[in-house]
Structure formats: C-alpha cells, structure tokens
What we know:
2 copies of one chain form a homodimer. By secondary structure, chain A is of the alpha/beta class. Chain A folds into 2 domains: 29-155 and 242-282, 3-Layer(aba) Sandwich (D-Maltodextrin-Binding Protein, domain 2); 159-241 and 296-338, D-Maltodextrin-Binding Protein, domain 2, CATH 3.40.190. Chain A contains 13 helices and 11 strands. Chain A has helices at residues 3-11, 48-61, 82-87, 120-129, 132-141, 180-188, 201-206, 218-223, 251-255, 259-294, 304-322, 326-347, 350-354; strands at 32-38, 66-71, 93-96, 145-152, 159-161, 175-177, 192-194, 212-213, 232-235, 244-250, 298-301. In chain A, helix 4 packs across helix 5 (132-141). In chain A, 53% of the residues are buried. The interface between A and B is large, with 90 and 90 residues.
Amino acid sequence: MKRRDFFKNISSVALLGAIPSISKSQKLKPEYNWKMVTTWPKNFPGLGTGAQYLADTIQKLSGGRIKVSVYGAGELVPAFEIFDAVSQGVAELGHGSAYYWKGKNDTFQFFSTVPFGMTANEMNSWLYKGGGLKLWEEAYDSFNLLPMAAGNTGIQMGGWFNKEINSLSDLKGLKMRIPGLGGEVLRRAGGTPVNLPGGELFTALKTGTIDATEWVSPYNDLAFGLHKAAKYYYYPGWHEPGTTLECFINKKVFSQLPSDLQHIVKGAAKIANIDMLCDFISKNNDALEILKNKHKVDIRPYPEEVLNELYEISKDVVKELSVKSNFAKEVYDSYSSFKDKTKNWNDISIKPYLNL
Amino acid sequence: MKRRDFFKNISSVALLGAIPSISKSQKLKPEYNWKMVTTWPKNFPGLGTGAQYLADTIQKLSGGRIKVSVYGAGELVPAFEIFDAVSQGVAELGHGSAYYWKGKNDTFQFFSTVPFGMTANEMNSWLYKGGGLKLWEEAYDSFNLLPMAAGNTGIQMGGWFNKEINSLSDLKGLKMRIPGLGGEVLRRAGGTPVNLPGGELFTALKTGTIDATEWVSPYNDLAFGLHKAAKYYYYPGWHEPGTTLECFINKKVFSQLPSDLQHIVKGAAKIANIDMLCDFISKNNDALEILKNKHKVDIRPYPEEVLNELYEISKDVVKELSVKSNFAKEVYDSYSSFKDKTKNWNDISIKPYLNL
C-alpha cells in the first residue's frame, strides 16, 4: 500500500485520534512473504523467466502486499517434489506442469497436454470457457492445492535424435526422455520413455544415458545446447501441441487471502499465461534461425506414415485413461467433446488461412 | 479496500489515538468512479461483454477502489465519437478497435489488423514482445490517450453476400460494410467500402443500403441475425486474421493513479485480451453448428484465385501506407519484419500440426 492511499483510506472514516507521521524512507513491509518452488532451473528462458514474471506480476498488482521469492529446481526442493512441498505447506506456490504428477493421478495429464490434442488457444478456451479449469481444481482439491494455468509453450518440437526416424520401427528400443502421455505412446511403439527434469537433459543425452529427448521448442532447446548432443531435430511436436504450464497455490494460504488478493493471484496467472505464449512465439523464430543458419541443424518432418501410426496409438492410450475412474471419464469426455467442436471452426478459419 | 485490510494496515504503523468502530453495513465508497464508452451495443456478445468483463476485472483486482460503468454505443456518445470523448476527458475509458480512427491517422490500422497479416497470437506477440505496443502508445500519445490490447476476435469470416463471389469482378460495384485496410482493398477491386457500427448492419443489409457486409465470426454474426439478411457466408476472413480490440484510457487520469492501480488497469486489459479470444474460440463452434444445421446457411470458401488477387492488392495497399510518414514507415517495418519471422516457425509447428 502506498502512503498516500493509506491516508486517503484513513480519511474515509472518521478518526478520533492523531496519527504519527511516517517518514518517506519508512517502507511498509509486505503482508505476505511467499516462496514459489519450480521444476525449472532458476530463470531458465521461457519457463523459469515465466515463473519469475508471475511472481513479479503478483507483487506489482498487489502494490507490494504480496512478495514472492522464486526458487529454481533443487534450490529448496528437487524439481519433482514441488507438488508435495506446496501441498504440505513447505512453500506457498509451485510452478510446473500437471503431467509431472501423473504418479498421483493419471488424469492430471489432460491438464498439461494430450498427444494429437488441443493447441494452446484451444487449451485455454477449454480451461477458461469449457469447464476444464473447474475439473482441474477438483483434481487437485484433495491435495490441498488450487491450480491455475500460468503459461503455455505453444506447439513444441518432436525432439532430438541421433538416428533417422524413417518408420515406427526406428523408435523400437529407443530410450527417450518424453513425459506424460507422449511417453506412454512411445512405450507402446517399443521405446523406453524416461522423465528427467530439463536441467539434466544435455548431460544425459551427451553421455548416452538416453538416446533421444524432446524438450520444448527452438527457444528453449537452444538454451540447453541440445543441438550439441544430437544430429536430427524432428517436427511437429505431435505429443505436445500446446502444453499448459501451471501455478498451484496451497489452498489454506489462498483461502485466508482477502478477496481482492485472491483475484490478483488468479489474474496474475492469466497474465503470465498469455505472456509466456507470446514469449515463445517471438523467441522461437529467432532461435530457429540460429539453429538453422549458425549451427546447421538438420531439421526434419516426421514421415507422414510415422505420424499416422503414432496417432492411432495415441487414440488408444488416451481412451484407456478414461476408463480408470468416473472422474477420468468426466475429464476425457469434457476434453474430447470440446476438441471435436473446435475442429469444425478451425476448418474454416485458422487452417485455410495459414495454408494460403 | 476491505475492512479487515484497513485494520491490518492501520496496525502496521503505531496509532496513538482510538479508531471508531465501523458497522459492517457501512461500505467504503470507491476512490475512482469511471465511465467506459464503447463502440458496441451494451453487452453485445463477445465485444460488449468483453468490455464489461474488463470493467469488472478492474473493479475486482482493485478491491473496489475503481468502479467502472460501461456505456453501449450511443448511450453517452455515438459509437464513432468515443475516441474524441476519452481524449477530451468526457469519459475515462474507451473500448473499440484502432482502425475505426483511421481518419485521425492511417497508421492506427496496424494496431487492429492487416489484410493477410498476423493472427491473434502473432498480434499479441508483436504487441507485447516485438515493440508493437510501444509504437501504438506513441501513436495515441498526442491524443492524450494510452492504448491497451483488450481483446482479440481471432480470425474472422469473409462476410455475408447476396450473390456468389466467383471472381474478383463479382466485387465490382459492391457496396459493402468493411472497415480498415480491408475496405481500401475492396475499393481497389472496384467495390465501395462503407463503415457502420455493428448495431446498424442488419437493417442496412436488409433494406439494401448495403449489398454485403462482414462483421466478425459465427458467434457474433448469429447474434445480429445476419443470416436472415444474406444468402452466402464466405471464409476465411482474409481482411481480419486476428483483430485486436482496444481499451484506451485518458492519459491524465492514468498518470494520476498510484503505481499499483496503473499495473491493475494494464493487467486487467491483458486478462480481458486472453479471455475474449477464448470466448470467441469456444462460442464460434456452437454458433457455427446452429448456422449450419438449424439455419442451413450456405457457407463457402472464397475461390483461391479471388484470394490470390486480393492478396496482391493488399500488399500494395499496406506498402503504400508505409510511405506516408516516417512513423508509418517505422510501424510498417516493425510489423512486417515480425510477421516474416513468424512464418518460418509456423511452417514447422502450427501449420503442419493442423494439417495432420
């Protein structure tokens, strides 16, 4: 709160007593001092900077009433332990992506991304307007967490390989870092999916601990130097067509906030959501140019036949998820019916336009 | 400000005197009572409701310190006079789109949409990350206005016609409502562009004052009942591939706000921006179904040849704008170079993905 507002508000009720003067240098302390734990290296381009942007936005919108300190993966807790940490109140906020917690509940993966599923704009529309966010809130409720969409990478790249992918059989025996449902699709195609935090990818690929990896897209992949550890860069990212990044807050912390600060936290997440997508769109172009022209990366489309086969496997994988529980079925139905409807509109709008 | 916050803040400095109790029913008045004038009918789906959503968001984020009353077109000032009204301080905020003010400066049109130009995501990326918003602020500065992107319709439809469009010559002599640069393209193709506020379209088309009209997309067009006034509905909206809606605020009003409320106003606009695009994406699908299945609307693609010819004309029209002033050149260069870069990334991401 600013000093002048303080006095403005004071004067709006009748004060009987006198108020001591506050010197200009005397700053009011934040009312809330929060920690945000993340699955990213501190300030990693796009994702880590996105978490920091969210923290800064909460602070600015609240006029400094909330201060958020951001911790990179491993600084306070390891990357894949942030969900439990915020659930248990070790930190107030977490920043990651829902598919990292599929061990808690397979259904969470719908709130990150689905192979051959919705794009960034469609995900946001489903979450905000199609009931998706409500289902996500229900999913995290028993973990004492309130989730918010807090970023989107847009469509990702297919991944980095040291061998050509000419047919589905080239995926057999491949040990690849690929999280979420995309990983399960790889398993069915005969590969071995592993999940690793982003910060470990370069070394794992370079030392042969993994044979291949996907990460995000040119902007992020260039930042990790993945082009120095692999020969081929395939597209499109069939397994992650518009991945939602999340911010979750401890529910007890959230419920104790006054209403305006609750709106500010949720609003800041929406601002961070649009900001990250714009960041990726603008930076991917520059990074792509560097990868192509400076590093002479061999950028290739997956063969159509491979994509078709992966699509068929994906349909099965996603459908099978839906029979695991009533809640999974509800999420699957909501996601699928929204996606089906967007197709008709895409067919006469963005698709013919981009093909001009 | 909430009563409990008031006391929380009071207690953060030492008070010597006593504070009288405030009864629960005694609400503190807003510190700012603002008027928002708009170019849309009050609460018109998507656009009018988007303006109202922005007003509500400002109010919620500010904890009621700012109250915004929204006025539909003509309620306080006519639709196309809101720019001057806010510039002169008759109202604090305006909600419209920049191409409506091309009479002030042709260059403004870049901040709405450009024929065969950027999509919604690309526009937002250019504005927020590519220097576009800074140029827009510069453009409105001498009018005492600060602009913000406050919504996007996504790609629009081509328009409603009572005759088939089989070749460019079918546009000759056509009196069509089509604003901005798209209108200038129609003029070069032999037509007569007119601009009318949305609320006047149905009657104008029905009575033959105009021969054809574009408006937005299924969600909005259905709301005006345009299918009852025309036979053919063409796509895609080559002239408006991702139209930015604006909110502008009187600069004097803005500059007198404390810093947190400045962040809240700008932040609320970003929230409204993503919200409107999601609203259009989710509602266009439902409306498209109704237009197709219930009203049996004849929905057609523009012939490829027509689109190619319109593209060539558009290139000239946009290029010619750029030589009008140094500032126009600067905006054109910024817009064009950003757009060119996005193409390379689109080609290996969203485009091949949507074509799967």
